[in-house]
Specification:
With 257 residues, the chain is α+β, with helices and mostly antiparallel strands. Helices cover 30% and strands 39% of the residues. It contains four helices and 15 strands. The strands form three sheets. Strands 2-3-8-9-10-11 form a six-stranded antiparallel beta sheet. The chain has a five-stranded mixed beta sheet with strand order 1-4-5-6-7. Strands 12-13-14-15 form a four-stranded antiparallel beta sheet.
Length: 257
C-alpha cells in the first residue's frame, strides 16, 4: 500500500472520529442544557406557591410597559380556593427576567405586595431587593436585548432597577425619570434646588425670593441619553431646560387659561 493511500485512509479515519466526537459533544450539551432548565423549573416550583404569567401591560407615554402588579396578583391570591398563596414567581411574556413576589399583611391585616427578588439568567442576575408595598411596575428591554429597566412604584415612591450583562443596580436620585425612544433609553434629571418650581403656577417675586441664589441661567432639568455600563450608568446630556425656560412656560400657561 502506497504512503499516499495510507495518508488518505488515516485522514478519513481522523475525520470520522472527529465527526463522532462532535455529535457526542452536541448531544451532551443539549442534555446538560435541558437538565439545567429542568433544575431551574424545579427550584422555582419549590420556592414559590405558584408560577404566574403576567400580560405585557400597556405601553405608556414614556415608552415603558405598565402593569398594575398589586391589583392583578391580589386578584389571583383572593380568587384561589384550592390552596393558600403567599409566594409568586411572575413571568412577563417573552421577557427573560422573573419577579419573586411575596404577599404579606400589615398590622391591620391589609394585604400588600413585596418584590423580594429579581432574576435574569441571560444577564446572570440574581438580585435580592426586598421592596415592600409595590403597587405597579414599568419595564422595558432594549431592542438589542442588552439592557433592561424595571421601575418599581410603591405607595409613596419609585425606584429604577437596571440590568445588563453580569451586573445590576438601582439608579440614583439624580435620575427623575426614564423613557425609551428610538431604540435608546433617555433620562430626565431635575435640579433639586428648584423643586418649588414644580409645584407653583407662576414664578412670582415671592417664589424667586424663597429660593436661595435664584438664577434664570441655572438648569431646571437636563435631558439626554443614558447608557448602562458594567460598573454604573453614564448620562449624556443633550438638552438643558433652564429656570428661565420654566418660568416662561408657566407664564405661557397662565396666558392660555
Amino acid at each position: 500500500m502506497s504512503s499516499q493511500k495510507r495518508k488518505k485512509i488515516l485522514s478519513g479515519t481522523i475525520l470520522t472520529i472527529l465527526s463522532v466526537l462532535a455529535v457526542i459533544l452536541v448531544a451532551l450539551s443539549i442534555h446538560l442544557y435541558l437538565k439545567n432548565v429542568d433544575v431551574k423549573a424545579k427550584e422555582m416550583a419549590m420556592t414559590s406557591d405558584v408560577i404566574y404569567d403576567l400580560d405585557l401591560g400597556n405601553l405608556n407615554t414614556e415608552g415603558l410597559y405598565h402593569i398594575n402588579l398589586k391589583e392583578e396578583l391580589l386578584k389571583l391570591v383572593n380568587n384561589e380556593e384550592e390552596k393558600e398563596i403567599n409566594t409568586i414567581t411572575c413571568h412577563i411574556g417573552e421577557e427573560n427576567f422573573v419577579l419573586e413576589v411575596v404577599v404579606k399583611k400589615d398590622d391591620e391585616q391589609n394585604q400588600y405586595i413585596e418584590v423580594e427578588k429579581i432574576v435574569e439568567d441571560h444577564f446572570g442576575v440574581n438580585a435580592r431587593i426586598s421592596i415592600p408595598n409595590v403597587e405597579s411596575i414599568e419595564y422595558r428591554t432594549s431592542t438589542s436585548g442588552d439592557e433592561t429597566i424595571i421601575k418599581l412604584n410603591t405607595d409613596n415612591e419609585s425606584s429604577y432597577f437596571a440590568m445588563t450583562e453580569g451586573t445590576y443596580y438601582i439608579l440614583g436620585q439624580d435620575i427623575e425619570s426614564i423613557s425609551y425612544m428610538g431604540d435608546h433609553f433617555y433620562y430626565v434629571s431635575y435640579n433639586p434646588k428648584y423643586k418649588a418650581l414644580r409645584e407653583v403656577n407662576e414664578c412670582t417675586k415671592e417664589v424667586k425670593a424663597s429660593i436661595k441664589n435664584f438664577k434664570n441661567a441655572d438648569y431646571y432639568y437636563k435631558y439626554g441619553k443614558i447608557n448602562f455600563l458594567t460598573d454604573f450608568y453614564q448620562k449624556l446630556s443633550t438638552k438643558t431646560y433652564t429656570v428661565k425656560d420654566r418660568c416662561e412656560e408657566l407664564q405661557s400657561n397662565l396666558g392660555s387659561e
